[in-house]
User: What shape does this take?
Amino acid sequence: MIKAVEMAKKQRDISVAEFFEKNRHLLGFDNPRKALLTTIKEAVDNALDACEEAEILPEIEVQIVRMTESRYRIIIGDNGPGIVKKQIPPIFGKLLYGSKFHQLKQQRGQQGIGISAAALYAQLTTGNGIKIISRIHEDEPAHYYLLKIDSRKNKPEIKDEQIVEWSKPHGTVIELDIEAEYKKGDISVDEYLKQTAIINPHATIIYTNPDLKQEIYVRATDIKPVQPKGIKPHPYGVELGRLMNMMKWTEYKTVKLFLMKEFSRVGPTTADKILGGAAVLNKTRPKSITREQASKIIESIKNTSIISPPTDCISPIGEELMTKGLQKEVKADFYTAVSRPPSVYRGNPFVIECGIAYGGELNAESAVTIMRFANRVPLLYQKGSCASTDSIIKTNWKSYHLKQSKGSKPYGPLVIMVHMASVWVPFTSEAKEAIAHYPEIIKEIKLALQEAGRKLGIYLSRKAKAKKELKKFEYLKKYVPHVAEALQELIELTDYEKENLEKALVEVLEDGRSFTEANGNQQEDLPDDLVETETHNELPDSESI
Amino acid sequence: MIKAVEMAKKQRDISVAEFFEKNRHLLGFDNPRKALLTTIKEAVDNALDACEEAEILPEIEVQIVRMTESRYRIIIGDNGPGIVKKQIPPIFGKLLYGSKFHQLKQQRGQQGIGISAAALYAQLTTGNGIKIISRIHEDEPAHYYLLKIDSRKNKPEIKDEQIVEWSKPHGTVIELDIEAEYKKGDISVDEYLKQTAIINPHATIIYTNPDLKQEIYVRATDIKPVQPKGIKPHPYGVELGRLMNMMKWTEYKTVKLFLMKEFSRVGPTTADKILGGAAVLNKTRPKSITREQASKIIESIKNTSIISPPTDCISPIGEELMTKGLQKEVKADFYTAVSRPPSVYRGNPFVIECGIAYGGELNAESAVTIMRFANRVPLLYQKGSCASTDSIIKTNWKSYHLKQSKGSKPYGPLVIMVHMASVWVPFTSEAKEAIAHYPEIIKEIKLALQEAGRKLGIYLSRKAKAKKELKKFEYLKKYVPHVAEALQELIELTDYEKENLEKALVEVLEDGRSFTEANGNQQEDLPDDLVETETHNELPDSESI
Assistant: This one.
């Protein structure tokens, strides 16, 4: 037989579920410990996204039950809008299905893979399906499903479906049995939930760990985050193939209308300019545009100045809430936060925010603790490959009075958090663990870090000065009794008079000190947002001395 | 309207082609430079795989034509077995389609994504489809196709198909126009092809770069690599969900037969032991096995001692060809190679090989050059995330007389190559750029490096000794004329006699040196495979002095 004919017999389709089943490390299911985190992360991210879209203050319950040494039951419930009956099977039982992929909008999820991948992993390791109860309104019934995934077809298999009694008026709860390992530490579920609470101060999270210890993160604010808007793509980000596809599928009848309606920042004048530059008639039907014409349109877009994409579609956390979040979970002396103005990479708007906490109960002997976030989701794995880590290393922290060796993170009692909010976060893998190294993104992160660093620098130099003053004061104070004694002898004071004199001398010293201090650190010179908590302050409280 | 109902309207399927179109950095198309390399790599890998399967000595032509500053035409042809007409459209026009995913076999490709992803990228950036000519036998016609990919459906669109005249009796040629950037350097097409030639000494590669410079890598051997065999999975690597799926789809009627036929290393006795331990009857139909029973079978597999998977399915390069490959492309003084015995990770057999070249024209002032390979494919990106790099850093090279600072690669005029051959290489991403950190793999790489390192160490200490001897000899030689002159005066020699005496003295010195050298470095003590090329030898050739 001809070899090619023999070889052809082995060719066949690979379902996307089979593909990820075999390559599950691509989705964050490399090992039992990571699988536990990924499963919970995907479910919590979805719950937060759903609540946000429905403008509900989220209340999320996470429960990990130890079944055997290596098998855990995960139960995650929310008070979100619920899921309509028909959508429950594909959302949890089909990879690459969802509402988020086709929108340019700031959301935690963006792929339509995560939660069904968790269900696939559960089925692979324990043979059990995923259980779901969801209800969309108090007047509607609650639906229960037991689903498996047919990985050869990438389709949900409904093993059971019922209407059930459920106490919640609306929301969703899911239950999965997975092979997992529960450990505390830097890269743990505990840490992920703590950081989630920091970056989502509007959410309440009730977490029961496998040892039945309950941790409740109460919301720090009742203000819901501004609902992010979906946007149309910006012409600068579009490529030839994508443009041709868009023209093939558009409902608009003329290419001018197509440009105006399917892109952001294209009005009639800009559309005329683009089409004029490409020598394409305004009334041409998009479907009849040739490859050569499309290519000229792309060229013409590059030569037309078009204003940047709208940035009100981004919903950053804001400096105040970033600080509140840090204060809630990190015991430090000093907190500051910076929220940069919006910027654009590859046609996608984004905002970088960063926060710094310093001193207090933080460990002074170790390298900085870095908390990385993307669209309000903590990133725990792949620290080394992330644009955030890279930007922190490349920032010169010595100028802000911190220790740092070349090519390393700074040292000291320090927490740095970096948040990227965007309509499309460029992750380095499907597991969404690290932000890719786009120069525009790195530049913005560095600018944010420098701004926050300067504020920290001011605080640290003030602190150093105050310490010096205190030392001087303590030194002079030692002489007060001797001076008083000498005066007692010289001008024959009574003991009572001597005591009063001593008090007076200390008062004079204190006044002098307050005076120099006030001069040296005029409060009005400090930036408004130099927040300092009184309770954990290491500085001596001069009023009480 | 109830929020969930409104939200449900946005839910929809995401095609795998759309997914990778939007996330193309996952496949190695992050930027124009990398896209060029990835496109060529996918095509060359496929050509080599096809030739190997058909037992043809590969002859591959790679041509990069510059169309504009940022647009290149890639033409890649082979003398492989060709592709049957019906298979051409799905192989090049559909993601996740192929013969390699469902086999456990040592191959370059394993996913069924690569070449269609390149076609998708071409279409996205230049709007052009992929052109293919393929012929399976001289008696059969050559088929020409022009294909595009319908990314919404992940299906090939046939834009043109014809029977054409073609000079080759069998083989395939493809042509793609892509947005790209051509640069030389460490991570370039030039380097990839050079390394491909090293690791595939049986292949001839004819490469024409965009500047019309032609580079021909002629094969170094006519021996075809041993054809790797596909194997069945080993029971130790199987998980519950996978076992249940296999039982659902098997054609075998009893669970005993199923175990014996669908797994490697399970004979009747082992099957009896497994089923006995699980309290499952031999004659049970696989389809009727419950989850609980399957779970018990998995438990029982863990408690049954089963011999390791067969390892003759792996086709390593071998020490001789590794050395030949290095000698062909790297000008050094010393070469050595080590091929480890097969080992197993997660039920998958694998072999680690490593080679070292030292001295000669290599740069003495820089860190080692690392060449990483997996199933005979050079890995150029993601150096830092690769198990190979990690193992090199963790090896103590100081004991082999090399410079190395802690936590770094060694320094010196050194090339280290590491090759992993396996039925399934665990890559860290779809772009197949780095090997994941499995402890079993890292252990084997380190053992290979240590073995090669010891051979290098012996060579280096011998070289140091020889240098010392030479210095001594040169020193003594300086005195010969003076001694001869003194003797001439003392015993009144003629000038002719004096000259003879000088010659004799030098001979005595040389003999003495050869004597100490032979004693200090008895050739028979050296390992057989300490290959040293005479031509590039820095050591003084004592015969010619």
